[in-house]
Amino acid sequence: MMVRSALLGASRSDRLRHTVERLPLTRTVVSRYVAGAEQSDAVRVAGELTGEGLAVTVDHLAEDTHDRSQATTVAQAYVSLLEALHKAELTPDVEVSVRLSALGRSLPADGEAIALENARQICQAAADAGTTVTLDMEEHTTVDSTLDVLRELRQDFPDVGAVLQARLKRTEADCRDLAQSGSRVRLCKGAYDEPESVAFRDRGEVDRSYVRCMKVLFAGDGYPMIATHDPRLVEIAGSLAARHRREQGSYEYQMLYGIRPREQRRLVRAGERVRVYVPYGPQWYAYLVRRLAERPADLAFLLRSVASS
Ligand code: FAD
């Protein structure tokens, strides 16, 4: 728990980020979790994965922005990515995941409106490319704002997906609200270090909350997206799908690029729909540290590559 908190703190350190981001991608643990720095890397990896029968969601890694032009640049990067994915004939199997803080939500005064406008442009580009968008979920303080933006976007783009985090105590109720026809909900444990007032702090409690949330989603009319590498939860999802007579393809599993790749392929062979979350871009530092917080064993591997670079 202490290592996790320290690493999540390090994910916000600018000095560490500047040092680590300058390391060559291929020589570090980074290339295991991140497609590469360029859009062409994301398109290449998405092509490889779809060639193996996996679906993909691509995340353009970008920091929280406090500058309007930076937010516009991120939105343009997504529009350009969607055009490239369409040109490579990878849509609709490849969609994009978007973080509202990278689209300007933290800008003073009308940050949320700016993020909504940027997100709308991305949704339009996705619709033109014949694919969808999922809004990533961030710290608990931003959940209401993300769900507000989701509601606005879904009026014009009904297939925009949301993410809910089982770590948060409010999530079971949010699942009930969103388990409606046409609603795509990605359920994850939650990557942020949240206070006890709003979150379960014990791993067992988070897992039990995850199961309760899955029950709501599978019983509902929406499209559950089960985002976890946890073998027990994957198994329980399978039983719930059977209990609710859900056909394969009326829900999906999601896992991160580089994590449990054999399990991803095993599920595909079993006829399940599996989507891999593929991040790319030069600003990979905070993403990588969040992954290391979940698996500190990989930290030793990273430190060895830093020492030898
Ligand atoms: P954990 O408890 O971390 O792991 C459970 C088990 O999975 C481990 O015991 C092990 O058996 C296996 N495992 C885990 N990591 C590894 C590894 N590196 N190698 C091998 N086995 C491993 N979080 C957010 O807060 N917001 C988001 O928008 C968001 N989007 C996500 C999208 C996707 C597709 C996924 C998969 C996750 C997303 N997350 C997001 C992250 C999520 O919240 C968790 O932090 C992350 O998935 C780790 O939780 P876990 O469910 O895999 O369980």
Describe the structure.
It catalyses: L-proline + a quinone = (S)-1-pyrroline-5-carboxylate + a quinol + H(+). Residues 46-301 form the Proline dehydrogenase domain. It comes from Jiangella mangrovi. This protein is an alpha/beta fold. The chain has one domain: TIM Barrel (Alpha-Beta Barrel), CATH 3.20.20.220. The chain is built from 13 helices and eight strands. It has helices spanning 2-10, 14-21, 30-33, 39-51, 68-87, 111-129, 143-156, 171-178, 203-219, 231-243, 261-269, 285-294, 297-307, and strands at 55-60, 94-98, 133-135, 161-165, 184-188, 223-227, 252-256, 274-280. The chain has an eight-stranded parallel β-barrel with strand order 1-2-3-4-5-6-7-8, surrounded by seven helices. Helix 7 links the parallel strand 3 (133-135) and strand 4 (161-165). Helix 1 (2-10) runs antiparallel to helix 12. It starts with a helix and ends with a helix. The model has no long low-confidence stretch (mean pLDDT 91). Bound molecules: flavin-adenine dinucleotide. Flavin-adenine dinucleotide binds next to strand 4, strand 5 and strand 7.
Question: Secondary-structure map with pairings?
Answer:
Elements: H1 2-10, H2 14-21, H3 30-33, H4 39-51, E1 55-60, H5 68-87, E2 94-98, H6 111-129, E3 133-135, H7 143-156, E4 161-165, H8 171-178, E5 184-188, H9 203-219, E6 223-227, H10 231-243, E7 252-256, H11 261-269, E8 274-280, H12 285-294, H13 297-307
Parallel strand pairs: 1-2, 1-8, 2-3, 3-4, 4-5, 5-6, 6-7, 7-8
Helix pairs in contact: 1-12, 5-6, 6-7, 8-9, 9-10
Flavin-adenine dinucleotide (FAD) is lined by residues 136-137, 163, 165, 186, 188-192, 227-231, 254-256, 259-260, 277, 294-295.
